[in-house]
Amino acid sequence: MLAPISSDTDSRKVSRVAILGIVAIVAILLVAAVLLFVNLPDANAFNARVEQIFVENDLTTQAEIKLLEILAQSGTSFAETLTSYRMVIFVLLVFATALLVAALVFLVTIIALNRRMSEIEKRGIEVSSLLISRAENTVYLNNMEFKLTPAAIETLSVLAEARLDDDVMSGAEIEAVISGRNASDCDEAAGATRIKRLRDTLGNQMVSELLVKNIARKGYMLSCPRDVIKMV
């Protein structure tokens, strides 16, 4: 019961880190946006300055009035440009926030998946049922169906029978049982080749590597409880 509790605790920690990270990102960008918009010049500052010039000076000639009109038009263009810049900056800040939040979520998800995979590798695959059908050349692993070759079925059957007896079989012993010869006359590499072909036929690398355990200097065995194995 300790493993699920530890897993739940890790999940809560990862979720807490993700939430805190998202809040921190939003808060930092919000502060940056506020400071940026506060320090941007007023869009009407140019027009206000032109108006001040008009009030403080007695402009009577046609050239002076024309110049003032040009300045007023320039101020209007400046205000429109600055307004568009504000909108662009706002959109970029929203886009940056979304990207950073998405990147953080993906990072946390990857970390959580890596931890989960590490737990699976440490504990091994949890097999609730293992049904081997020699007639159909099929194995049912946790209700997942795998079509195997006759040679792969023979190899898996030998491993299953050995697991029922709590035996660890070397490559030479596996080859001896299948070929009907003495183990002393069989090559260790031949049995190892059968194990490799069995794993290749299972296809799913994680399932095959965790189901068929390689015990150093001893041999091979199935990493599943004896009472879940059935052979027909």
From TrEMBL:
Coiled coil: none
UniProtKB keywords: Membrane, Transmembrane, Transmembrane helix
GO biological process, alphabetically ordered: regulation of DNA-templated transcription
Domain of life from the UniProt record: Bacteria
Database matches in Gene3D superfamilies: Winged helix-like DNA-binding domain superfamily/Winged helix DNA-binding domain (1.10.10.10)
GO molecular function: DNA binding
Residues annotated as transmembrane: 17-38, 87-113
Official protein name in the record: OmpR/PhoB-type domain-containing protein
